[in-house]
Amino acid sequence: MTRESWKIFQIMAEFVEGFERLARIKPSVSMFGSARTPPDHAWYKLAEEIAHALSDAGFSVVSGGGPGIMEAANKGAFAGKSPSIGLNIQLPHEQSGNPYQDIALNFRHFFSRKVMFVKYASAYVVLPGGFGTLDELAEILTLVQTGKTRRIPIILVGAGYWQGLIDWFRDSLVAEGTINAEDMDLFQVIDEPQAVVDAIFDHYERRGFEPSQAEADILVDL
Questions:
Q1: CA nearest 73: which of 59, 63, 60?
Q2: Residue 126, CB half-sphere, CA atoms under 13 Å: how many?
Q3: Which sequence spans correspond to the domains of the chain?
Q4: What is the model's pLDDT at position 219?
């Protein structure tokens, strides 16, 4: 067996640990944002407030486990009533674990980590960030759009930051027919912490947090 083949077992181990340790955190919300945001920045404080509100409302909060917005999310949840979960990734420059994690998982592979962000999430809350944040946003939009995961609230926080991207979605993607106009309804923009919580509850008010049988069958494939 080649060295590359042995990596299969590393990947399997990450999935097994993730499934075993996260299966009981539901309902949960995955939060994203820049690792480079300092603690005195307004976005950091806003992320902390949102995470605290979500935690007190009964949601486990799942973030990247590192600095910046990830730390703010874990910190806010850690101070609340529900678990704070960090999905840490080994990176050469900026990833270091923050101390605000009730459950900390460590990943070497982005794709297995990304599955964990999606599989147990009842909502995505996306704050300003860079390529990694955009990657996670594009991932969940694609999965929902193509029916590969159930419809969940996808909330962008920081209206001014996201407006240019939203305009581009509408003026280029919709205009050129590369997405449908109704795909713009897959996400919403909310800046107030309590309004974020309310939007998630509003989504599930008539259907409950547990997936339907059809949705559960989809989630098995993730």
A1: 63
A2: 25
A3: 8-220
A4: 61
Determine the Cα angle at 78 with ends 75 and 82, to 5°.
140
- For CA atoms 87, 24, 144, 160, give the dihedral sign: negative
How deeply is 188 buried, as exposed, middle or buried, from its count of CB atoms within 10 A (0-12, 13-18, 19+)? middle
Q: Which of 1-10, 11-20, 143-152, 208-217 has the highest mean pLDDT?
A: 143-152
Backbone φ, ψ for residue 209 (5° rounding): -80, -25
- pLDDT above 90 covers a percentage of the chain that reads 77
- Strand 103-107 relative to strand 84-89, pairing: parallel
Per-residue model confidence (pLDDT) at position 192: 98
Helices (H), the chain: 3-22, 42-56, 69-78, 110-119, 131-145, 159-168, 175-176, 193-204, 213-220
Q: How many CB atoms lie within 10 A of CB 184?
A: 14
User: Residue 27, preceding bond cis, omega within 30 degrees?
Assistant: yes
Q: How far apart are CA 186 and CA 152, in angstroms?
A: 8
Q: Give bridge partners of residue 60 from the DSSP assignment.
A: 28
213 has pLDDT over 80: no
What the block records as the tokens of 58 is 């009964």
In the β-sheet with 28-32, what is the strand arrangement from edge to edge? 103-107, 84-89, 60-63, 28-32, 121-126, 154-156, 188-189
The CATH architecture annotation of domain 8-220 reads 3-Layer(aba) Sandwich (3.40)
**Do 88 and 64 meet the contact criterion of CB atoms below 8 Å apart?**
yes
